[in-house]
């Protein structure tokens, strides 16, 4: 990828406790937590977690909704998660994520097969929720 190509930079999720959410994503999902200490110290308005070198999830506290005024009506989106966010992983990382979520007692759907996505039909997929009810799909494609 080049800096001039279009790609997903970040997704903002509404969460009740950004520090707890960052811990969930770091421990159960395996993402790198970013700016958690700075958030706890009041230096930044939210922490994030790194999905990969190009994409992060921002963990916005519900209390920040009244300051989300970049677009008329934005504050009204607090607490309304998107339908789901899909993570495409290599097969070994898919299996490792499922095992980590199981170890942390996170409920998951059964394994699905041949779900259509950006790169065609995925070999396997499953769904899980974070502690705030945001739904994630994990999938892998045959390479």
Can you summarize this structure?
With about 140 residues, this protein is α+β, with helices and mostly antiparallel strands. The chain has helices at about 20-30, 35-40, 90-105, and strands spanning about 10-15, 30-35, 50, 55-60, 85-90, 110-115, 115, 120, 125-130, 135-140. The mean pLDDT is about 90.
Q: Can you summarize the main beta sheet?
A: 4 strands, mixed
The low-pLDDT segments are: none
Helix tally equals 3
SS class = alpha+beta
- Tell me the Rg in angstroms: 16 Å
Please tell me the CATH architecture of the largest domain by its name. 2-Layer Sandwich
Give the strand order of the largest sheet, numbering strands 1, 2, ... along the chain.
Answer: 1-4-3-2
Give the SSE order as H and E letters.
Answer: EHEHEEEHEEEEE
User: Quick one: how many beta strands?
Assistant: 10
* CATH top level label of the largest domain: Alpha Beta
Beta-strand residue fraction: 25-35%
Shape: globular
* Proportion in helices: 10-25%
Mean pLDDT: 88
The number of distinct structural domains comes to 2
């Amino acid at each position: 990828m080049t800096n001039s190509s279009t790609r997903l930079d970040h997704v903002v999720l509404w969460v009740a406790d950004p520090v707890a959410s960052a811990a969930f994503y770091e421990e159960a999902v395996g993402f790198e937590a970013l700016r958690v200490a700075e958030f706890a110290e009041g230096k930044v308005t939210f922490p994030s977690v790194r999905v990969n070198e190009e994409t992060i999830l921002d963990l916005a506290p519900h209390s920040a909704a009244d300051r989300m005024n970049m677009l008329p009506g934005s504050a009204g989106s607090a607490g309304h998660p998107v339908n789901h966010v899909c993570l495409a992983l290599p097969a070994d990382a898919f299996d490792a994520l499922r095992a980590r979520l199981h170890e942390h007692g996170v409920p998951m759907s059964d394994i699905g097969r041949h779900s259509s996505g950006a790169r065609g039909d995925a070999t396997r997929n499953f769904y899980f929720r974070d502690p705030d009810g945001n739904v994630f799909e994990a999938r892998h494609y045959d390479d």
